[in-house]
Amino acid sequence: KMIRTSILACLFACLLPASPDTKLPRELNGIGFDQKLDAPVPLDTVFRDETGQAVTLRQYFHDKPIILATVYYRCPMLCNQILSGVVRGLRPLSLKPGRDFEIVTVSISPDETPQDATARRDQYSRSYSRTAGPTSWHFLVGSEPSIQAVTNAIGFHYRYDPPSKMYFHASGITVLTPEGHVSRYLYGVDYEPKDLKLSLIEAAHGRIGSPVDQILLFCYHYDPKTGKYGAVVVNMLKGASALLLVCMVIVLTWLWRRDLRQYGNAMKEATRT
């Protein structure tokens, strides 16, 4: 009886809606992705690369698909996880940047400099592959109009928070066709190698994916108790995973004990006969 009660309580807790404290604040309303599949990206938009040289996106679009990451380089939290997730997802693949696809990272902060871009290029291109070389992954900075032109085209919505001097934004990357059209969105901070490979192959052939569920992690969430923003959504996911694990352990324990009782009863009946 106790085990059944625990199972029912656990399942009830899993099915309960999030408490009001876990709801996103007004500051995060409108933050996320609008899926603009097949939308063209403005390829003539001007940015600066790691050397400070003026470049356009068109320079990276030839006959290969593009992985586009919109982050900012001084981000202390989620952006690092996004770029690290790209590295983890691409590393096992036989596809190689520069040969089979290009990676372009655009900073959403107009205050960042080519020096910021260089630091991130060195960090992530080298962690991805010692043989890939720094030219295989492009890190760009630009003016507010240039940034807005690209982010609006792919439906990426974010907001700057003056008190914290940080950006509210969601996690995800966009895969573009060689012609510069949105082919697919991949959300979160972990990108499965098979998903990346399929997305790149489809984009290489000009195929446009279908809308997918947006499972987003937000960079900052307001905590009224501390007056600060933190990775509350990430903690919520960790908590949900732990709760699910506890539920599974309780259910399996109950099933094991039930089967054990049934086996004992069967043995008693066999002894009597």
Largest sheet: 5 strands, mixed
Strand content: 15-25%
Write down how many β-strands occur, each being a DSSP E stretch of 2 or more residues: 13
Give the strand order of the largest sheet, numbering strands 1, 2, ... along the chain: 6-5-4-10-11
| Low-confidence runs of at least 5 consecutive residues | 1-22, 221-236
Q: How far is the N terminus from the C terminus?
A: 30 Å
Q: Helix share of residues? A: 25-40%
Describe the oligomeric state of these chains in a short phrase: single chain
Order of helices and strands: HEEEEHEHEHEEEEEHEEH
Mean pLDDT: 80
Tell the overall outline. elongated
**What integer value in Å does the Rg equal?**
24 Å
Going by helix content, strand content and strand pairing, the class is: alpha+beta
Put simply, the count of helices is 6
